[in-house]
């Protein structure tokens, strides 16, 4: 079974990367989108169902058609195409839930363009949770060769993130992350470093009391469940090479605390993974890159890593579940 790659924003670098990924032939996939976006770039065969895909992948890219409302112009996103972009994600998710594709790999979307099209979710992560009927169970991880990070709060303003943080949320995210590290990444006893929120992790309350009030208690609760969590640790030294040897993943308190170190270290090979869902979902770590769309400048490394990781996570999950 193949994974499904979604179209993403047709004015971004998604279509160019799909072409480059198919040419690389390192991890086969079927694509859900408007075939006009790929015309002349790769041999395409339109299929009616994923079952028809397996026989084709060596010779042509199998495509499930999801037509755009208007022709796409690279670098000029058009909210009128939002419905097709959303339909591509919905269809890939439904196929994954039905066991007809091995998982989904999403191409980048523009959150504000989709918002103009009436999309009520801040990103894929929250939309997928709704489609899987698992709201609140979705957890974002960014994984790369050198680091795995899990933000406890995600697509909210920094001010709002502070309001959302509490012991229960940290414990829930830590529990889901630890389980996914065991089940999907094959790490038998994952070590979970927990970042502090404040400078020097609060310096014993001198620079903030969130560590004392709820981060330390959350670490204790996770440990009581048998999870090897430790912290809160000062965030500024948590991502050094030496520190990274001491954990399998970091639980971070907000989006940029997690994503800045990962994208700085490993932008080209970073992969966004949604944990906590019944399906496998990965994505490249970059966005739509409208500034370079249509110029043949997009680097496919992160998408290739996302396709390979979707395959590996699926295989590991099947092995884990079979052994239970
Ligand atoms: N998975 C997703 O759907 C996803 C992920 C991240 C950002 N986004 C969205 O993408 C939009 C643009 O975000 P942004 O500008 O902050 O980040 P971006 O990743 O799109 O671009 C940042 C910079 O990196 C460059 N870049 C990105 N990917 C590249 C690649 N594969 N090869 C070469 N250069 C590349 C871009 O040209 C740009 O200069 C936003 O709407 C954001 O929300 C979506
Ligand atoms: N926070 C992600 C990143 O910056 O890489 C990105 O916005 C993607 O989010 P979704 O997977 O929820 O679309």
UniProtKB/TrEMBL annotation:
Record keywords, A-Z: Cobalt, Cytoplasm, Magnesium, Metal-binding, NAD, NADP, Oxidoreductase, Pyridoxine biosynthesis, Zinc
Enzyme class name: oxidoreductase
Complexes and interactors: Homodimer.
Catalytic activity, reaction form: 4-(phosphooxy)-L-threonine + NAD(+) = 3-amino-2-oxopropyl phosphate + CO2 + NADH
Pathway as given in its UniProt record: Cofactor biosynthesis; pyridoxine 5'-phosphate biosynthesis; pyridoxine 5'-phosphate from D-erythrose 4-phosphate: step 4/5
Organism: Acidomonas methanolica NBRC 104435
An example molecular function term from Gene Ontology annotations: NAD binding
Reported cofactor(s): Zn(2+); Mg(2+); Co(2+)
InterPro entries referenced in this protein's UniProt entry, alphabetically: PdxA, PdxA_fam
Gene: pdxA
SUPFAM superfamilies xref list: Isocitrate/Isopropylmalate dehydrogenase-like (SSF53659)
Official protein name in the record: 4-hydroxythreonine-4-phosphate dehydrogenase
Miscellaneous section: The active site is located at the dimer interface.
Protein residues bound to a divalent metal cation: 155, 200, 255
Origin: domain of life: Bacteria
Free-text cofactor note: Binds 1 divalent metal cation per subunit. Can use ions such as Zn(2+), Mg(2+) or Co(2+).
